[in-house]
Amino acid sequence: MCRMLGYIGTSVGLDDLLIKPDSSLIHQVVDAQMLSMLNLAGYGLAAWDDAMADPHLPLLFRSTDVAIFDPNLRSIATKLRVRALIAHLRGIPYDGHVAVNRQSLHPFSLAGSPLVLAHNGDLARFGEMRYDLVAHIRPDILPHIAAMTDSAWLYALILSCLDGDVAGPCSLDALLAATQRALAIVRDIRSRRGITQSSSVNLLLGDGRSLLAVRFTFDFGRFERPPFQGGVNFLSLWYTMGAAYQFADGEWKMTGGSAGASTLVASEPATRDVATWVEVPEYAALLVDGAADGSAASPRRRIAALDI
Predict the structure, then answer these.
(1) Residue ranges covered by each domain of the chain
(2) Which of 44, 177, 228, 242 is the least crowded, having the fewest Cβ atoms under 10 Å away?
(3) Residue 176 backbone dihedrals phi, psi, to 5 degrees
(4) Other beta carbons less than 10 A from residue 236's beta carbon
(5) How far apart are alpha carbons 56 and 169 in whole angstroms?
(6) pLDDT in tens, 74-111
(7) Is the CATH number of domain 3-305 3.40.50.300?
(8) CA 87, CA 17: separation in Å to the nearest integer?
(9) End-to-end CA distance of the chain
């Protein structure tokens, strides 16, 4: 099962987010603390910073290489600073029928749109549902679905549920509403198809100005066979807040108090010491709204129950 990380806040080195912490996303390729599987099917990231060209659009980087062994990622990470990030490790069943290709890698992005999506979870029997979704996906988005995976189609469905132009801007409330509409469509299709197997849909969505982290599952606890979820029944999602994410007092942590400008969200804590991390509640979303000018100043954060 996949691992993912989202950040919005003060500008920070990419290696401080992805590599240096003792339980960093890169270490989770082979040593995830809350998942009993390896994440070997590639990785990707979407990054924003004011120093980049077209700072409202993400820098996208994806590779089918195993992240922990990729020197290119380490080289880029030591030179790049970001104020917003969504990063993802792809975990898939150990099955020769599953495709490992660049098109299936997260985060998913539509050309011209600042909004990207990463997914941690698995929609059971998605092959039976895929073409039921066609009627709910906008004709201008449908030809651009990158892959046949559940995650790629979820991204297209959420974009289709947005009111207005997908090029944005889009408020967090509008994005949350679109996500809930998309999950309700999936729920109805599952019901019509008689699909009741537990299926997690943890999501990170962001546009460089704001971040939406969703923790959700369909039919929790109902398994027709042992779940493909890395040995866990419900995938977790955690966050920490502060002025800066850095190495201080002999450990990696958020410093400066929870009212600070920075928020880090991850499938599991990126540090062995979890004291500064808080779990996103089940069936809820964390909304982090940055400043209107795209900076990290004075973010507004809240937890919202999902109405699906």
Answers:
(1) 3-305
(2) 177
(3) -65, -45
(4) 18
(5) 10
(6) 999 999 999 999 999 998 777 777 788 899 999 999 99
(7) no
(8) 10
(9) 24
